[in-house]
Amino acid sequence: MPHPIILLISLLSFVHCQQEYEFGFMLNSNDNYGTAFEKIINFAIDKFNNGTNQVTLTPKIHHYDGTSLYKMVNEACDLLTEEIDLIISPSYSDSIGVQADVFNKVDMPVIGTSATDSHLITGSRDELFLLPPLDEMQAHVIVDILSKYGWMKPSIIASDSNYGIHGVTFFQKLLVETTAEVSVKEEFDTSVYFFKAEDNPEDIDISDITTNVLDTMDRVFVLHCEDFYGKYVLKKAHEAGLMGETFVWIVTESITSSPQNLKIYYNETDKNGYYPKYYDGLLGISLYVDTESTNYRTFKEEALVASQGTLKEDDLIPIVAMLYDAVTMAGQAIEENLAPQNVALPPNTACGEEPWAGSDYIVNSLVGHQYEGATGTYRFMPNKTTTMTSKYRIVNFRDPGNGGASMFTGIGTWTSKERLKMTSSDVLFLGGVKEPPRGLPNSLNGRHMRVGAVHGPPFALNPTGCKDIRCWSGITPTIVEKLALALNFTYEFVVPKDNKYGHYNETTKVWSGMVGDLLENKIDMIAMDLSVSSIRREYIDFTIPFLETGVSAIIKGESKTNTMFFFLSPFGFSTWAAVLFSFVVFALFQTMISKLSPYDNNGKVRFAASKCVCTKCSLESHHMADTAEVCLVEEAEAECEESKTTILNALWVVGGGLVGQGGE
Predict the structure, then answer these.
(1) Fewest beta carbons within 10 Å, which of 70, 410, 491, 514?
(2) Pairing state between β 419-422 and 407-415
(3) Other Cβ atoms within 10 Å of 618 Cβ, number
(4) Could you write out the DSSP letters of every residue in 168-191?
(5) pLDDT, tens digit, for every residue of 185-235?
(6) Run of H or E residues at 103
(7) CB contact at 8 A, 85 and 49
(8) Quick check: pTM over 0.70?
(9) What is the DSSP letter of 157?
């Protein structure tokens, strides 16, 4: 039996080796997944501490009001007073940026488990780590989806937050690069609309956007905003009539990763909520996480058991699992690189100016550490992003039809290597249709059209410059009037400021006149005698012409001396020689064929001879018959004499064919 003193020394050695680290967590109190986040944090900490580790972790969880920047900063400052070693936050990009500015000021390391904005990585945030792939990859996925279905005129609706603006920047940059690689007919023509990112999501106003897109007849929309704005934007779009057949809505990863935030609630006491029917047919992209993998299934099973019924399976979505992975990964990284005894203690002053000298130890522990978790394999690179493979799911929101809840279901995948790969042909689009919309309006019913025109008799006349449509007359105003009656739309004529049709300036790369107004979305169409030129066709579409004209150049021809053989002038000597030679050869050939063919005159005589039954036949080999009265051979020869083919006949027939007049 070991001596008690030896056991005491061993225990003291263990206590001495055991190192305690405090992890701080910033949770948004308005997040629908806030409860799930908190329970997963405690589950991850408990599981790590129950292992045979030389490190113990202690969680310090602080909740902040996501609608108030001031309150979030104060909460971050309060968290610093608790001698925190590392901050882990599942907040989205804008919030992470603010938190990192507070914590990194004292060199406190921060891990963002949901932020995807690559603009967050700056020199002033050198201790900020981002776990998921960045937004640049999302832009590639969306462009590939648009290209697949031929939706070349998308409109981007985004919040005016850093997250929205930076996402749009990536998207526009990629569209320009993509357009440079495709033909003119496949050019992307993109419109961008921003709405104010209100502190209270219910207060957002997109009425100007919906009015504008109704006028411009946009049909394909990409919604890039934080998850808590998503349902309000879609609701207002539905109320404006922008979520029916012929429309397409593609939502980004921030929305698809938090489907619970799309639910509509009847009142404040409603705890379940529902997904409105107009969501059916939404397309989206989400970070691909293999939820059927052994690691993910093990994580879910253990988390559900540990929660003792306080967590539901629907709560354990990938962004919750990524928070679990971040806690475990950080704990393992610190344990593999145990701190020496002389590492400085973390700061304990709220938003202090004094940097923490020991932060390099935590940062160096995280960089290069590889971890295989529930949501994938991670390794932080020196730029503080991970090497996680950029893989996304293409998802489709739909009612499963079996009484289950509507949800995003996978219809395809995207990787940087294989690009877009659709795994299902059963795709539902808005309005319950299965055929992909064209992305263009199919009706002008009830629309108001801005029609470009200038005074140009006789096609359009308005000598006084009156703005009333009744002041216009001529061919094109009459055509527009008839179309408006037939298609039930209203219209107004818009005259360009320079009163020109449209000229392209090679130096400034800008169009003038009506063409410029059309490209700048100041008008919806042009109704004038606009010439169809090659340069204009590269930028705008034309209808079938209502008038075709030609331009001819008349020049003086060469004077030639008239001769009796002038008709031979179209061809040279060799050509005429070949024609004459062919003329004679074909005539001889036709004559020879007539003599030898069993179906021509000679054949007719030979056939008659084989059937001869008269006594006057000149061929002795023919059989006789008592009943014959007429010699068939002589009768055939008499007929052939009248129609036999001679060389002259053949020359006449071939000559008639050459001049295209026939032989008559």
Answers:
(1) 70
(2) antiparallel
(3) 11
(4) HHHHHHHHHHHHTTS-GGG----E
(5) 356 778 899 999 988 899 999 999 998 888 777 899 999 998 889 999 999
(6) helix 93-103
(7) no
(8) no
(9) E
